[in-house]
Every structure is written in structure tokens, then in C-alpha cells.
Amino acid sequence: MPATIHFTAAHHVIEIMTVGNTDLDNVWLEQEGFALQSITTDATAQIQPTPPRPHLTWIGDSITAGCWVHGRRPAQDYAADTNYAAQCSDHLACDSCRIAYSAAGIIRGGTGHVPAAPQFLTHLDQDTVWQPTATDLVVINLGVNDRQYFADDFESVLRSFLHQVQDCFAAPIMVMVPFAQVFAPVFRAVIHELPSITLIETADWALTYTDRLHPDQHGSDIAGRRLAQVLRPYI
Fold first, then answer.
1. Whether this model's pTM surpasses 0.85
2. Percent of the chain whose pLDDT exceeds 70
3. 59 located within any domain
4. 5 forms bridges with which residues in the sheet?
5. 221 to each of 225, 231, 235, how far by Cα in Å?
6. How far is CA 64 from CA 35, 87, 178, in A?
7. Which residues form the signal peptide (predicted)?
8. How do strand 173-176 and strand 123-125 relate by DSSP bridges?
């Protein structure tokens, strides 16, 4: 659906984000997602690319996608532009790419027929292969949706998935302990085996939540700021 945005006759930096898919949208099998088709300007406008900035790649679930930040209403309470990942990127003056699907985990598939992370990592949907782009840092926040599985099973798949991420990206990798502290001992044990990957502890961040899992706006503010402090030396 076309949208028109009016600007004053000055210099503006424009960042476009799409948000609004709900768990009912078949994003994996039926292409029920969002895509930017074109940008049209009037005759007096001039478009220039922004100067290159450091680049972050986020791999996560609905928390990283920005779901349930403002409340419990599907779509309208999502905030991809103000959740923790967006705020962290802004604090660090970084561009970012988010690979994040609602309810998905490392073992469990997500809503909208999305498969688990080892499968969705390199695809936009079942028909569209995605080649990971060059990035300066990879941040992973997954695992909370796998909480119904045994720790031994999660440990095995986590280890394999991290090796897969290493093969995809020639960049430092940071793994967050989920905000809910799901499988925290497993994350510590596996990352201890992989010295090239850094673990980010989150237990003392004192976040606030919409539903005990998804940070609300205040919690997102805290998480974005705390995470930026951790990542800054790596950017």
C-alpha cells in the first residue's frame, strides 16, 4: 500500500522499518510479510546514500523482532524501532540486520510455519535463499522458546548452531543469555568450549516486562543501554 511522507526543504536522514506481522501471518509458506518495492520522490528531491556505518547482525525471536513492547495487542503494540535491538544499534550509531521470527528457537519452529533457527538462518522464506551480508558483529538472543526441551538436547543443538553461525559470518559472535535466564548453565558451558565466541550475561539487568518474557518499553530502554555498553569495545 503506497504511503506519502512530506518533508521540509532541508536535509533529512530517513530510516525505514516495517513492523506489524502477527502470529497468524503465514510468513514462511505464503510470503505474507512486508517488502519495500520502490521509493518515488517529487522533482525537487535529491536522494543520497548515508555514509557507511558499522553493521550489526541480530539473530533472535519475537523479543529481537520487537513484539509486545507497548502492550498485548498484536501488531499495533509491536515496536521494532524502539525495542532493545533498535536502541542498542542507535546507541552505537550502527546499521543493523535482524533475523528474527516470533516464537522460534534453536530447536522449536516459530509461528507462520517458520522453521527453527538452523533452517531460517539462511532463508527469507521457504523459497528465498538469503546470503548473509558482511557485518562487523553478530549478536544472538535465542533459547527462551526452547524451554520445554531437555537441557542435553538443547546443548547439542546450540553447539551445532553456533558452528553454523561461525561458518556464515566472518565476524565476532556474541551470545546473550536469554533475559528469562533459560538454559543459562548450558550457555555458559557451551560458550566456554568456544573461546572465539563471547557470552553476555543479563541476569542483573533488572528489566521490566509486558508479559514476563518480552521487555516493555522501559525494559527495552534498559536492555538497549546495557547491551550497548557491552558491545561498544567490539565496534
1. yes
2. 99
3. yes
4. none
5. 6, 16, 20
6. 19, 11, 11
7. none
8. unpaired
